[in-house]
Amino acid sequence: MRISEVAALVGVTPRAVRHYHHQGLLPEPVRLGNGYRDYGLREAVVLARIRRLTELGLALEEVRDVLTDDRGRELVEVLEGLDESLGRQEAALRERRTRLRAVLAEARAGRLADGGPLSPEVTRLLAELDGDVRESPMAAKDRDHLAYLDGVLPAEQRAGLMALLEGMRGQADTVYALLDDLADASTRDPRVSTVAAELAALLPDGLAAYLPGGAGPSGTGGVAADALFGDLAPAQSAAVRRALETVARRARDTI
Q1: What per-residue confidence (pLDDT) applies to 216?
Q2: Torsion, CA 218, CA 224, CA 230, CA 231, rounded to 10
Q3: Do 51 and 10 touch, CB atoms closer than 8 A?
Q4: Phi-psi region for residue 186, left (φ > 0), alpha (ψ -120 to 50) or beta?
Q5: C-alpha neighbours within 13 Å on the C-beta side of residue 120
Q6: Which of 196, 202, 198 is nearest to 232 (CA)?
Q7: Residues 65 and 78 sit within 8 Å (Cβ to Cβ)
Q8: Is 151 helix (H, G, I), strand (E, B) or coil?
Q9: 214, 225 in Cβ contact below 8 A?
């Protein structure tokens, strides 16, 4: 049989047969006088076995190990490992579908932020804020900030930050009102210092470890901080920076 014939017989492509030769899985058959490979029953059997093993999900390296063990003992071990791997994949898939259904429910209810889909922590916080906070320019902007932090913070940091912010839900309206008043102000406006002090009094000490302010214990700053503060009006940015610096100093003093 020629390569096209054995490939059709077994149910693979000629390209796959050549690849198996290249990987050392399928021994080269004898060649005819014209140079063409002449496949026989032996090659067809091996090729069919390769196809069945790859259909089970084995990588070609694992198939090679199985083919070199005539007793079949390693095949059992490989298949047991594959079964365990598939079990882990199934569990991960179920978890992903659970998260997807939660996000889908938020989207159908019209509560999904423009930056979504977001993590469950941020999705929950945004849903709670929508019910508690009045509409304001700063509130709308903060939704984008939360989506931004959701994308750049590691999962553990994100969970800690969202827990702190959930504890501030009752103060969110006050925070947004303070910052809204600085939307068109100059950085020299005396209200900047006043708002910074009021914000610092509202913010928990632990916030300094998560939000970029140049003074937090997590070494915040750089490009991530610039993007967040760059989205604020100059006076708002100045007030928030001062507030976070105060919170960071306060946190250090309590250690």
Answers
A1: 40
A2: -100
A3: yes
A4: beta
A5: 9
A6: 196
A7: yes
A8: helix
A9: yes
CA atoms within 13 A on the CB side of 43: 22
In this structure, is the dihedral angle defined by the CA atoms of residues 210, 215, 235 and 229, taken in order, positive or negative? Answer: negative
Q: Does residue 221 carry a pLDDT above 60?
A: no
Asked whether 67 and 50 are in contact (CB, 8 A), the reply is yes
DSSP calls for 70-108 = TTSHHHHHHHHHHHHHHHHHHHHHHHHHHHHHHHHHHHH
CA quadruple 221, 226, 228, 229: dihedral, nearest 10: 100
Nearest 5°: phi and psi at 31?
-110, 145
DSSP assignment, residue 216? S
Tokens matching residue 251 = 């946190």
Cα angle 122, 161, 204 (rounded to 5 degrees) comes to 130
Q: Give the Cα separation of 29 and 41 in Å (integer).
A: 10
- Please, which pLDDT band fits residue 153 given cuts at 50, 70 and 90? confident
Residue 238 Cα distances to 20, 25, 26, 190, 249, angstroms: 64, 66, 69, 12, 17
DSSP letter for each residue of 26-68: SPPPPB-TTS-B---HHHHHHHHHHHHHHHTT--HHHHHHHHT
Rg of the chain on CA atoms, in Å = 31
- What is the tens place of the pLDDT at every residue in 57-100? 888 988 888 887 655 556 677 677 777 877 887 888 888 788 77
Is the Cβ–Cβ distance between 133 and 173 less than 8 Å?
A: yes
